Amino acid sequence: MHRDRTIELLRTGYPWAASLRAGRPAVATRLLGRQAVVVGGPAGVRRFYDPRLRRKGSLPAPLGLLLFGPGTVHGLDDAEHRLRKALALGVITPTTVAALGERAEREWAVATARWTERQRVVLFDEAVQVHTAAVLPWAGVPAGAGELPRRARQLAAVLDGFATPGPAYLRAVLARLRIGRWAKGLVRGVRAGRVHAPDGSALQRAADATDQRGTRLSDAAAATALLNVVRPTVAVAWFVAFAGKALHEHPEWRERIAGGDAEAVAAFVHEVRRLYPFVPVLAARAREAQDVLGVRIPRGGLVVLDVHGTDHDPAHWPEPDRFDPGRFLGPPVDPDTLVPQGGGDVTTGHRCPGEDVTLTMLAVAVRALARAPHAVPAQDLGYDLTRVPTLPRSGVVLEAARVAAAADGSR
């Protein structure tokens, strides 16, 4: 019998699954007290999204309830999943994503203009605030200027601590309770006619959503649906921090992006997501006993997708730990080799419905950073792969143009 590797996953973080697989498409193990198989690479990605697997019960409750909330689409299957997925896709359309991007552009313009008034800023903190200020009004959520910073901190705290045992997890639990109560209050307010939600907004659609029987979702489930649109947008702040690090370390790409090279922006964004994925693994459960790429799994057994290892597979990504957006300037890559936000079909499967939001918000931030005059002082830009989600240790400290110019003149 295989030994349980749950503690090993918690201690090792992102490299765990690839180390266990050692280049194999699938390897048997034990996780969370269940028989499991870890899969990766294109074959593993395709198998992970096989309909013989389900998502319900695949995540331990302390993690799933904290990050996603009760009744989340991430833990649903079949008709129930399709119905809830349609709710998200009704909010996230090409037109609405473009509108969100325009809001983000305005917020970044305001933020970067204010940098000259401050000696230093932490890019990660700025991104959290900018994205919250953009996404809440876009989602139809009424939030005054005084409330936005608090909600931004709470959303970031949930994301920062969901997979980190200790004080960060406790802070995440407290933040999740507070943000959940706030979201339920918004839903109740809309349903009672006390809060106005613009037609077609995430808040309006969540408040009006029904289940398969046509029964209106509970306040908690509707609040979860709302937060599952808002929270991932704030999560893009982690990618923005790594983008700031990459722009500093690769000034030739900063110049291309600042010069208006749209292909360079798209390639840069994809490489940031490939090199620095948000989660190390994803999980599903077997509906019935079955063979998974040569490994026999019982009903209820876990199938774990190696996200980080797939995005760093040297068979598909030469020198996988090297930052090189040029990988994305040639022919389109195999979508099953790039899964920072999951794989499969976004409409019918479990691929993240907010992937277009991530791409848009990250592209907007990258352009704003490339064009904003700033310097990056000496700091620790390293990151810890044993911590999930990881982040440059400094948060990426920037000095505004006024301070940078003075430093240049003293040389």
Automatic annotation (TrEMBL):
Keyword terms: Heme, Iron, Metal-binding, Monooxygenase, Oxidoreductase
A Pfam family per the record: p450
Database matches in InterPro entries: Cyt_P450, Cyt_P450_E_grp-I, Cyt_P450_sf
Top-level division of the source organism's lineage: Bacteria
Cofactor(s) this protein cannot do without: heme
Coiled-coil residue windows: none
SUPFAM superfamilies per record: Cytochrome P450 (SSF48264)
Protein family per UniProt: Belongs to the cytochrome P450 family.
Name assigned to this protein: Fatty-acid peroxygenase
Native species: Pseudonocardia zijingensis
Protein encoded by which gene: cypC
